[in-house]
Amino acid sequence: MNYKYMKYFYTAIVSVALWQCKMYDKVENAKIHEINSAIQTIINIDQEIEILADGFEWSEGVVWDKQNNCLFFSDVPQNTIYRWDEKDGLNIYLRPSGYGAEDPDGLELGANGLYFDDANRLVICDSGLRRISRLNTKQYYKENLVSHYNGKRFNSPNDLVINSRGDIFFTDPPYGLNQLNQSPRKELDFNGVYCFRADGTLLLLSDELSFPNGLALAPDEKTLYVSNSDPKNAVWMAYSLNNDCTVDSGYVFFDGREWVNEGKEGLPDGMAIDKQGNLFASGPGGVSIINSQGHLLGIIEIGHPIANCTFGNDGQTLYLAADMLLCRIRVKTTGLGFP
To answer: What is the pLDDT of residue 173?
Structure first.
């Protein structure tokens, strides 16, 4: 047993609830922009957005735990994973969530993207420790799943998604490293998109994106969407997936460079997808709702950059990790994976 992580996990379990009020504030001046009338079947454009908690440095990695009916998310700079539910509000779940000691060369030492596997184990983009980890709640430590490609350490894994076979797709930009691509600690000369297959083999799917970030899988698991959080090339890519998890050449699914040039806050980041294949993509200006043909239907704007989003509850609630805020909004559609 790894005593260090046992100690961290125990500390998190006994942490005190931070926020328990059930009268939620609304996001002032929030707006849902209708670009295409089809948005009306997905969301009420007059729907209010609730603030569930605030005071974070940069909220990220939201994921819904269906088994326990609660939400988990990261505050990467604060090296913390939080747990939120309707009854108990906000609690610290794991701190430190990543690197366990001071590291002057690290920018993002905490966990980032989170996902539950089919055994309801929390799989973590361990940005500070530069690996993909899995939380072992029986022995109270994090298991290292994969940390190297061709003998070289990852940069700082950022986001992940798991398919129905248990294959883990993840991105590896340099955001956790001081000086980013110029960091002397950077061992790989590219920023990759990978698949760690259920059989234990690691595949490099793409080394062509400058800052690969958020991920989503289409309902039929034949398309992998990847956001590129580069202000010079702020795009969402789509890759056709083969049965062995290899990809064919990708194409630009949606282009957000015009919004960046207009000065809208945010860059292509985390994503969620509904049963119909509509992509809820956080990025410049808020969360863009894009249908499976790549047509923009609408934008959820709250006045703060939104890093990530996920469906929860009955599948018709969209949770937003938005800078210092955790928010939610009811929708008409149903998230992928919900009844």
So the answer is: 98
User: Which helix H or strand E contains 10, and what residues bound it?
Assistant: helix 3-13
Its pTM surpasses 0.85: yes
Residue 35's pLDDT is 97
Contact assessment for residue 191 and residue 174, using Cβ atoms and an 8 Å cutoff: yes
Q: Determine contact, residues 227/268, Cβ cutoff 8 Å.
A: yes
Q: Which helix (H) or strand (E) holds 8?
A: helix 3-13
Residue in the block written with tokens 């030492």: 109
Closest among 128, 76, 97, 77 to 15, alpha carbons compared: 97
Amino acid sitting at position 303: G
The 3-state DSSP class for residue 205 equals strand
Q: Other C-beta atoms within 10 Å of 339: how many?
A: 6
The string of DSSP codes covering 148-202 is: EETTEE-S----EEE-TT--EEEEE-STTBTTGGG-TT--SSS-EEEEE-TTS-E
What is the DSSP code (8-state) at residue 15?
Answer: P
Residues 194 and 214: beta-carbon distance below 8 Å: no
Domain residue spans in the chain?
Answer: 3-330
Average pLDDT over residues 21-46: 91
Name beta bridge partners: 169: 161, 195
Choosing among 2.120.10.30, 3.40.50.12780, 3.30.420.40, 3.30.470.30, the CATH entry for 3-330 is 2.120.10.30
What average pLDDT score do residues 198-221 get? 98
Please give the single-letter amino acid code of residue 218.
Answer: A
Question: DSSP of 273-306, one letter per residue?
Answer: EBTT--EEEEETTEEEEE-TTS-EEEEEE-SS--
Alpha-carbon gap, residue 150 to 222, rounded angstroms: 27
